[in-house]
Amino acid sequence: MNNILSALVMSVVLLGGSEQTQQSDLPPQETAPANPTPATVLPPVSVQAGPALPWLNPSDEPGALANADEAREGRKLYLLPQDCSERSEVDVVIHFHGSPKTMTKAFQSSHLDAVAVIVNLGALSGPYEHYFEQKGSFVNFLAGIDKDLAKHCPGAKRRRLAISSWSGGYGAAYRILVEESNVELIDAILLSDGLHSAMANKFTREIKPDGLAPFTRFAERAAKGDKMLAIAHSSIVPPGYSSTTETATYLLESQGGERLPIDAQGPRESMHLISKGSVGNLSVLGFAGNDTHAHCDHLYAINDTLFSQLERRWAN
C-alpha cells in the first residue's frame, strides 16, 4: 500500500503542468496510479443522445443549490437551499471524499433540490471504512445531521437520503452497507470511479464475492426498482486488487445485466464514454482513460454523470 500511495503523490509532481492537477483545491492524494495497466477498450458504436447522457443536453436554468448557503459543523460542510427553513422536509445527499471547493461547484451546478453534506476523512478508503466500522455509527452520524438541520433549517425534517462518493470515499458506503439495517435508511448510492475489492485469483482477476456482498445486496434492491445504485468509472486497472471496471461489471452481471459498447463524447473534453449498462435502477457508465487525469475527471464531472441521475429519480 505504501508503494501505491507513493505513486499517487509522485504522479501529481510529474503531471503538475496539466490543467487538472494545477487546481489548488485538489489534494495530491486524490489521484490514480501514475502507470496503471492499460485496459481493453470496447469497439466503438454509434449512440443517440438521450436521458442517459444528460451532458449532451445541458440545462442553463439554475438549481436550488446555485446560491446555497454554507455552514460548517466539524468535518461536515453543508450546502443549504436558501428556503430550507420554510420546508417541512428536505432530501439530503452526503458526499464522501473530494475537495470542498470542487464539490461545492458540482452541487451548485446541479439541479438537486436537497441539502448537500460534504465530508472528507482522508486520502484512501481506510479512514472512511474505519469511521463507520462500529455498529450504530451511521445511525449516530445521521443523528448529528438531524441536529444540524434543526439548527440551520429549523422545522425541516430529513426525508430521502443519498450516499455519494468519489475515489476512496467508497469505503464509507461499503462499511455503512455492511450493517444491513442501514440499507433501509438509504434511497440511493452514487459511486464515482471508486469501488475496489480483493481478488480471489490475481492472475485471472477473479473477484472475491464476499468483498462485494454489501453492494451486491444493494444492487439487487436497485435492480428491482426500490433503491438506486449509479456507478461511473474510468478504465484504470490497478495492480493487486480489482478495478472499478471489474467491480461495476460484477455488480451489473450479478443482476443479469450486461454492458453495451458506446462511442460518445463525455461531459468533459478529455472524457469518452465507451460502455453503459443498466437493470432497473442499477446503472453503469464506463469511460476510457487509464491515468491520473482520467481519475480526476470523474470528480469534476460527478454532476453530469451521477447527480443528474439522482435528480431524475427524486423529481418523481
Q: Could you explain how this protein is built, in words?
A:
The chain has 316 residues and is α/β, with parallel strands linked by helices. It has a single domain, classed as Rossmann fold, CATH 3.40.50. Helix 3 packs parallel to helix 5. The chain is globular, with a radius of gyration of 18 Å.
Strand content: 15-25%
CATH architecture annotation name: 3-Layer(aba) Sandwich
| Helix-strand makeup class | alpha/beta
Helix content: 25-40%
Which CATH C-level class is it? Alpha Beta
Largest sheet: 10 strands, mixed
Give the neighbour order of strands across the main sheet: 1-2-4-3-5-6-9-12-11-10
List low-pLDDT spans: 1-51
Give the tally of structural domains: 1
Average the pLDDT over all residues and give the rounded result.
Answer: 86
Summarize the structure.
This protein has 316 residues and is α/β, with parallel strands linked by helices.
Which features does this protein show?
9 helices, 32% helix, 316 residues, 12 strands, alpha/beta, Rossmann fold, 22% strand
Chain-wise SSE layout:
Elements: H1 2-14, E1 69-73, E2 76-80, E3 89-96, H2 100-109, E4 115-119, H3 125-131, H4 137-152, E5 157-166, H5 170-178, E6 188-192, E7 199-201, E8 206-207, H6 213-224, E9 228-233, H7 244-254, E10 260-265, E11 272-279, E12 282-287, H8 292-300, H9 302-315
Parallel strand pairs: 3-4, 3-5, 5-6, 6-9, 9-12
Antiparallel strand pairs: 1-2, 2-4, 7-8, 10-11, 11-12
Helix pairs in contact: 3-5, 5-6
